Amino acid sequence: ACIYGELGGLQDVAAHLTDVDVWGINVYRGKGFGDMFDVYARLTSKPMFLGEYGADAWDARFNRENLQAQAEATRNLTEEIVEHSSVTGGVCVGGFVFEFADEWWKDSDGNVSEHDTGGVAPGGGPYPDKVFNEEWWGLVDIERNERPALEALRLVGVPAAA
Predict the structure, then answer these.
(1) What pTM did the predictor assign?
(2) How far apart are CA 85 and CA 91, in angstroms?
(3) Cα–Cα–Cα angle for 54, 59, 64, nearest 5°?
Protein backbone atom coordinates (compact mmCIF):
# COMPACT_ATOMS: atom_id res chain seq x y z
CA ALA A 1 0.00 0.00 0.00
CA CYS A 2 1.03 3.57 -0.61
CA ILE A 3 -0.68 6.76 0.58
CA TYR A 4 -0.61 9.37 -2.16
CA GLY A 5 -2.73 12.31 -1.03
CA GLU A 6 -5.39 13.82 -3.31
CA LEU A 7 -6.05 12.36 -6.77
CA GLY A 8 -4.15 14.90 -8.91
CA GLY A 9 -1.23 13.13 -10.60
CA LEU A 10 -2.09 9.68 -9.22
CA GLN A 11 -2.39 8.12 -12.67
CA ASP A 12 1.19 9.12 -13.57
CA VAL A 13 2.57 7.94 -10.22
CA ALA A 14 0.65 4.66 -10.42
CA ALA A 15 2.14 3.97 -13.87
CA HIS A 16 5.63 4.04 -12.32
CA LEU A 17 4.79 2.29 -9.05
CA THR A 18 3.29 -0.87 -10.48
CA ASP A 19 4.01 -2.96 -7.34
CA VAL A 20 1.57 -0.91 -5.25
CA ASP A 21 -1.47 -3.14 -4.77
CA VAL A 22 -3.74 -0.66 -2.94
CA TRP A 23 -3.68 3.14 -2.85
CA GLY A 24 -4.39 5.32 0.16
CA ILE A 25 -5.90 8.74 -0.47
CA ASN A 26 -6.05 11.65 2.02
CA VAL A 27 -9.09 13.78 1.19
CA TYR A 28 -10.51 16.92 2.79
CA ARG A 29 -13.32 18.31 0.64
CA GLY A 30 -15.90 19.29 3.22
CA LYS A 31 -18.63 16.94 4.38
CA GLY A 32 -18.62 14.87 1.21
CA PHE A 33 -16.12 13.34 -1.18
CA GLY A 34 -17.86 14.64 -4.30
CA ASP A 35 -16.91 12.60 -7.37
CA MET A 36 -13.69 11.27 -5.81
CA PHE A 37 -14.67 7.57 -5.93
CA ASP A 38 -15.78 7.76 -9.58
CA VAL A 39 -12.68 9.69 -10.62
CA TYR A 40 -10.47 7.22 -8.77
CA ALA A 41 -12.15 4.27 -10.52
CA ARG A 42 -11.32 5.84 -13.89
CA LEU A 43 -7.63 6.26 -12.91
CA THR A 44 -6.83 2.73 -11.78
CA SER A 45 -8.41 -0.67 -11.26
CA LYS A 46 -6.66 -1.15 -7.92
CA PRO A 47 -8.58 -0.78 -4.66
CA MET A 48 -8.17 2.28 -2.45
CA PHE A 49 -8.65 3.32 1.15
CA LEU A 50 -8.99 6.70 2.81
CA GLY A 51 -5.70 7.20 4.66
CA GLU A 52 -7.19 10.30 6.30
CA TYR A 53 -10.63 11.85 6.32
CA GLY A 54 -12.71 13.83 8.78
CA ALA A 55 -13.41 17.28 10.16
CA ASP A 56 -12.08 19.31 13.04
CA ALA A 57 -14.24 20.48 15.95
CA TRP A 58 -13.39 24.21 15.76
CA ASP A 59 -15.49 26.51 13.59
CA ALA A 60 -13.40 29.52 12.56
CA ARG A 61 -16.47 31.28 11.16
CA PHE A 62 -17.79 31.78 14.71
CA ASN A 63 -14.55 31.33 16.67
CA ARG A 64 -15.96 28.49 18.79
CA GLU A 65 -16.31 24.73 19.00
CA ASN A 66 -18.85 23.18 16.64
CA LEU A 67 -19.21 19.58 17.77
CA GLN A 68 -22.36 18.96 15.75
CA ALA A 69 -20.66 19.98 12.50
CA GLN A 70 -17.77 17.60 13.23
CA ALA A 71 -20.24 14.80 13.98
CA GLU A 72 -22.27 15.51 10.83
CA ALA A 73 -19.17 15.46 8.62
CA THR A 74 -17.84 12.29 10.27
CA ARG A 75 -21.17 10.52 9.71
CA ASN A 76 -21.61 11.73 6.12
CA LEU A 77 -18.06 10.91 5.06
CA THR A 78 -18.13 7.47 6.68
CA GLU A 79 -21.48 6.68 5.07
CA GLU A 80 -19.99 7.57 1.66
CA ILE A 81 -17.09 5.20 2.30
CA VAL A 82 -19.58 2.43 3.13
CA GLU A 83 -21.61 3.24 -0.02
CA HIS A 84 -18.49 2.79 -2.14
CA SER A 85 -17.21 -0.28 -0.30
CA SER A 86 -15.46 -3.05 -2.18
CA VAL A 87 -17.72 -5.44 -0.23
CA THR A 88 -20.61 -4.23 -2.41
CA GLY A 89 -18.67 -3.74 -5.65
CA GLY A 90 -17.12 -0.32 -5.03
CA VAL A 91 -13.46 0.70 -5.07
CA CYS A 92 -12.97 1.50 -1.37
CA VAL A 93 -11.69 -0.99 1.21
CA GLY A 94 -12.20 1.40 4.15
CA GLY A 95 -10.78 4.47 5.78
CA PHE A 96 -9.13 6.00 8.82
CA VAL A 97 -10.78 8.94 10.55
CA PHE A 98 -8.30 11.69 11.30
CA GLU A 99 -7.92 11.53 14.21
CA PHE A 100 -8.52 9.75 17.50
CA ALA A 101 -7.39 12.50 19.92
CA ASP A 102 -6.61 16.21 19.73
CA GLU A 103 -2.95 17.11 19.30
CA TRP A 104 -2.17 20.35 21.09
CA TRP A 105 1.36 20.53 19.70
CA LYS A 106 0.35 20.93 16.04
CA ASP A 107 -0.07 24.71 15.75
CA SER A 108 3.54 25.85 15.46
CA ASP A 109 2.53 29.39 16.43
CA GLY A 110 0.74 28.20 19.57
CA ASN A 111 1.56 26.82 23.00
CA VAL A 112 1.83 23.05 23.48
CA SER A 113 0.03 23.41 26.81
CA GLU A 114 -2.96 25.23 25.32
CA HIS A 115 -5.69 24.29 22.87
CA ASP A 116 -4.85 26.72 20.07
CA THR A 117 -6.73 27.45 16.87
CA GLY A 118 -5.09 27.69 13.49
CA GLY A 119 -2.54 25.65 11.65
CA VAL A 120 -2.20 24.72 8.03
CA ALA A 121 -2.49 21.57 5.96
CA PRO A 122 -2.97 20.81 2.27
CA GLY A 123 -6.33 20.17 0.63
CA GLY A 124 -9.63 21.84 -0.15
CA GLY A 125 -10.61 22.21 3.45
CA PRO A 126 -12.73 20.49 6.07
CA TYR A 127 -16.37 21.11 6.89
CA PRO A 128 -17.83 23.53 7.89
CA ASP A 129 -15.33 26.40 7.60
CA LYS A 130 -12.63 25.04 5.22
CA VAL A 131 -9.98 25.90 7.85
CA PHE A 132 -7.55 23.30 9.15
CA ASN A 133 -7.61 23.87 12.90
CA GLU A 134 -4.85 21.37 13.47
CA GLU A 135 -5.30 20.90 17.22
CA TRP A 136 -9.06 20.14 17.07
CA TRP A 137 -9.41 16.96 14.99
CA GLY A 138 -9.91 14.39 17.72
CA LEU A 139 -12.91 12.12 18.09
CA VAL A 140 -11.97 12.59 21.73
CA ASP A 141 -10.45 15.65 23.37
CA ILE A 142 -7.04 15.79 25.04
CA GLU A 143 -8.48 14.27 28.24
CA ARG A 144 -10.14 11.47 26.20
CA ASN A 145 -13.67 12.81 26.67
CA GLU A 146 -15.74 11.57 23.77
CA ARG A 147 -17.09 14.04 21.22
CA PRO A 148 -20.37 13.48 19.36
CA ALA A 149 -18.32 12.60 16.26
CA LEU A 150 -17.21 9.36 17.90
CA GLU A 151 -20.82 8.29 18.43
CA ALA A 152 -21.66 9.34 14.86
CA LEU A 153 -18.87 7.06 13.64
CA ARG A 154 -20.13 4.17 15.79
CA LEU A 155 -23.64 4.49 14.35
CA VAL A 156 -22.59 4.01 10.72
CA GLY A 157 -23.25 0.44 9.64
CA VAL A 158 -20.54 -1.84 8.37
CA PRO A 159 -20.93 -2.78 4.70
CA ALA A 160 -22.33 -6.24 4.05
CA ALA A 161 -22.34 -8.34 0.91
CA ALA A 162 -25.71 -8.67 -0.79
Answers:
(1) 0.92
(2) 6
(3) 130
Helix, strand, or coil (residue 79): helix
d(CA 134, CA 130) in angstroms, rounded, equals 12
Q: What digits encode the pLDDT tens for the residues 125-145? A: 889 998 889 899 999 999 999
Question: Closest Cα to residue 25, out of 123, 143, 125?
Answer: 123
CA distances to 1, 42, 54, 57, 138 from 70, rounded to whole Å, are: 28, 30, 8, 5, 10
- Segment 86-119, tens digit of pLDDT: 999 999 999 999 999 999 998 888 899 999 987 6
- Helix then strand then coil, % of the chain, to nearest 5: 25, 15, 55
Rounded CA-CA distance 130/121 in Å is 11
